[in-house]
Amino acid sequence: MKLYRTSEGPYIEVEGNYCRVPQLSWDALITHDNLHEHLSALVHEVEKAGDFSSVQAFLPQVLAPIGNQEVWAAGVTYYRSRSARMEESKDAGGGDFYDRVYSAERPELFFKATASRVAGPDSFVRIRGDATWSVPEPELTLVLNPSAEIIGYTIGNDMSSRDIEGENPLYLPQAKVYDRSCALGPCILVSSDALPSSTQIQLEILRSGYIEFAGSTTLAELKREPESLAEYLFRDNSFPFGALLMTGTGIVPPDSFTLRGGDEIRITIEPIGTLVNEVQSPQPPYGTAA
User: Fold this and answer.
1) Are residues 94 and 155 in the same domain?
2) What sign does the dihedral 222-226-231-233 (CA atoms) show?
């Protein structure tokens, strides 16, 4: 089943219709002892009553599926990402770092965003004004409860400034963490079952209505198990409201490509759906004239 955060509270998708979740806040849902069981019981009660007066065929405004959760990300979890990171940072002498972390037992994990920095479906993401090489990174994103259990999945876009990270790997926080550098949505697929390795991740970037770049990968190319990534994130760390963890990207546009203002980014992971965002034109770098 799909769980949406909207301007009028949480909704569940019920066979193409949408049933409002009564009473519980978003944070209460994410921290629920058994979210799948709770939502399944709610759907059962609606169906049993035979009264779909609380169900509608459309949603209010859909928001990013995040409350007080933090967003974290895993890096170099696909071979394609490893190769791209090595290439972009070779002049800085950092290429070997990415090769080593790809093969290491411990994954690369980094903080990505708070809710205030996250864009929801059909809203703007940003590229940095002091960057010249910016790309989206489409990623399956785990929804974790405070006990580090995977309670669902959503789609994430880890916007990245490749030239800044390539200049020096220590600049990764500046390349990755800025306002609206992260997009999530359109919903959470709440499931007690893991997604199969055949699950496909697709990316399309439209420019002036035409496809400028398209690519795809599957979870079979993900080197690390999602449960292992979650376990490392929660080592000596606590998340009282749960967390969202991006699992890395296996789709990297060619080095000649960079995002522009007005580009439309479309990321599809079935059965979750499609996350659509437009790129906002960058602001001039701090200290320069507009």
Assistant:
1) yes
2) positive
